[in-house]
Design a protein that fits this description.
Spore Coat Polysaccharide Biosynthesis Protein SpsA, Chain A, single chain, 30% helix, globular, three-stranded mixed β-sheet, disordered N terminus, 13 strands, alpha/beta, four-stranded mixed β-sheet
Amino acid sequence: MRRTAPKARTSVPPEDKPPRFARPTRIASVVFALVLLAVTARSYTSRQHSDVSDGLASRDDVSDHEPTSAASANDGDQTFPTVEPSQAARIAFLFLTRGPLPLAPLWERFFQGHEGYYSVYVHASDPSFAFPPGFSPTFRDALIPGGKVVWGDFSMVAAERKLLAAAFVDPRNAFFALASESCIPVWPFTYVYSYIASANVSLLDAHHDQYEMAFHRYERWKLEPVIRKKDFVGGSQWFVLRRRHVAMIMKDSAHYLAHQRSCQFRMKTGSRFCCADEHYVQVLLHMYDPVGISRYPTTFADWSLAEWHPKLFVAENVTTDLITSIKSSKQFVSYRNFWKDFQSNYSYIEDPSLPQPERSPSNGFCSINGLPRNCFLFARKFDESTIEFLLDHCKELLGF
């Protein structure tokens, strides 16, 4: 007898067919759909909503392994599990890029020695992009079929879904970290893995902003009745999701289509931008698992310039002090530039002259399982000119 999911606020969205991610051949489409359906069904029929894939042979809970080494003396007892790599719950690193990955050598060093604990997937905004011969196979072989992506367009959300779908098919992937070509890791792999695996929530920025919600985006985006005003949250698009939440995203079509229709409406009425990537995942998980998300960002960005994009760090302004301040921050600051309707701003230095937001449940302090932690695992935006400094100082500053 077919089991029906319980109707609860913490359940998954209504069961609708997800929108197409691409236009593959008919046979490939059918095969992919069957695989995706089987994996999704397997995840949802479990009585216990485990934070990791049911198919992982190593354990029932990633955080239950005995430690082998401390990841950072500066941040408490972050530890790395002893599970065999072939059986480990993996972090799927999802690179949403314009094309080239100038910081790939730094990521290679970050991954080195931890094979079996991670997977890599790359989506380029130019469908014709290909890595040059001789480029790192870690990234070259991870390029997935994609579509054109335009900043401020719904194609950004579609690309995120393609990356999540590609990674979700592998049941070893338990965690899903979204990054761009300008992102860098600011801690060693063992620390990042332990931080993510020991959390019982997805690391996702999602907060209310009354001014933006009431007078700008929600009122203009025509998202009702699927999304109510009180559920309209937003935040940084860069996240680390647990497998159960990716399953919700794969299962959803109602929210996806609501945002897609809204973006199409806005473009037809002359709007330049549709920042659905700051709301789609945030609203969906806020509505269906509100206690299952951290509500603070784990990717640092400096929005102190109050422009459409965060500050771009180039070689001359990347210093030891900058990296140290990012790593040591245990408090995040989130605000909106109301009068210009700019996107979310994050800075490690709070400017009291700026409008102050409604704080997250943790009052602006980052915590894991109720304990204060350093906020940021990653940082952006770093220009390709910074790679020499980062490689020269990564052991000293980044720990790898």
